[in-house]
Automatic annotation (TrEMBL):
It comes from Panthera pardus (Leopard). GO terms for biological process: apoptotic process; proteolysis; regulation of programmed cell death. Gene3D superfamilies: 3.40.50.1460. This is CASP8 and FADD-like apoptosis regulator isoform X4. GO terms for cellular component: cytoplasm. Pfam families: Peptidase_C14. InterPro entries: Caspase-like_dom_sf, Pept_C14_caspase, Pept_C14_p20, Pept_C14A. CDD domains: CASc. Residues 18-113 form the Caspase family p20 domain.
Length: 235
C-alpha cells in the first residue's frame, strides 16, 4: 500500500472508554481517522452510508472500521436499546464491491467489539419498533455492480469480539482487552503480517479467558477473504 493516507479509518465508539489509543495507533500507521462517540443506531447507519460513498476511497489503498457498542448476538444498538439494532451483516454489505466500487480489490478491515445484552435485559419495546426503512435504504442505495473479475466479497478482514455487557458494569473505565491487544500488536510489531498478529491476539485472549469467570471472557471470531499478505507499517 502506497497511498498517503493509506485510507480512511472510521472509529465509532458508543461506549466511550475503548478507542482513544486506537485513534492514535491508526493515525501513526498513516490513516485518516474519523472518530465518533455515543451514536444512536440511525446515526451509525447514516455515517456508515456516508463513508461508504466517499470519493476519496478511489485514491486510497485500504479502509478500516472500528466499531464498539452494546448489541445483540448479531446486531449493534448504539447508545439506545429501544429498537432491534442494526444487523452486523448489513454493515459488511455496505462496503462490498457492488455497493462500494471504489474499494473493490482493496483491503477492508473491520474490528468490532460488541458487548452483548441478553434478550431478558432488553425493554420489551426493543422487539416492537422495527427500524426497517433505515436498513432497507442501505440496500436500495447500493450502486449497480460493475463488470469485474474480483468477487464483491473479496479482501475483507472481519474480526468480531463479543463479551457480556456486565463486563462494562464491573470495570466501566477499563478498555476492551481485545482492542487493547490489537493496538499493542499494531504499535509494537508493525512489520509483521496482520493475520499473524491476529493469531497472537487470539492467544492473549485465550490466556485471559483461562483465568477469569465466564462473565468476564471475550470471544473472538475471524473471517477473511484477503488475497494478499497484509502488513501495516508506520509512515
Amino acid at each position: 500500500m502506497q497511498s498517503k493516507p493509506l485510507g480512511i479509518c472510521l472509529i465509532i465508539d458508543c461506549i466511550g472508554n475503548d478507542t482513544e489509543f486506537l485513534r492514535d495507533t491508526f493515525t501513526s500507521l498513516g490513516y485518516e481517522v474519523q472518530y465518533f462517540l455515543y451514536l444512536r443506531v440511525d446515526s451509525i447507519i447514516q455515517i456508515l452510508r456516508q463513508v461508504a460513498c466517499m470519493p476519496q476511497h478511489q485514491d486510497y489503498d485500504s479502509f478500516v472500521c472500528v466499531l464498539v457498542s452494546r448489541g445483540g448476538s448479531h446486531s449493534v444498538f448504539g447508545v439506545d436499546q429501544t429498537q432491534p439494532g442494526f444487523p452486523l451483516d448489513q454493515i459488511r454489505r455496505m462496503f462490498m464491491g457492488d455497493a462500494c466500487p471504489s474499494l473493490l480489490g482493496k483491503p477492508k478491515l473491520f474490528f468490532i467489539q460488541n458487548y452483548v445484552v441478553s434478550e431478558g435485559q432488553l425493554d420489551s419495546s426493543s422487539f416492537l419498533e422495527v427500524d426497517g426503512p433505515a436498513v432497507n435504504n442501505v440496500e436500495s442505495k447500493a450502486r449497480q455492480p460493475v463488470p469485474c473479475t474480483i468477487h464483491r466479497e473479496a479482501d475483507f478482514l472481519w474480526s468480531l469480539c463479543t463479551a457480556d455487557v456486565s463486563l462494562l458494569e464491573r470495570s466501566s473505565s477499563s478498555p476492551s482487552l481485545y482492542l487493547k491487544c490489537l493496538s499493542q500488536k499494531l504499535w509494537q510489531e508493525r512489520r509483521r503480517p496482520l493475520l499473524e498478529l491476529h493469531i497472537e491476539l487470539n492467544s492473549s485472549v485465550y490466556d485471559w479467558n483461562s483465568k477469569v469467570s465466564a462473565k468476564e471472557r471475550y470471544y473472538v471470531w475471524l473471517q477473511h477473504t484477503l488475497r494478499k499478505k497484509l502488513i501495516l507499517s508506520c509512515k
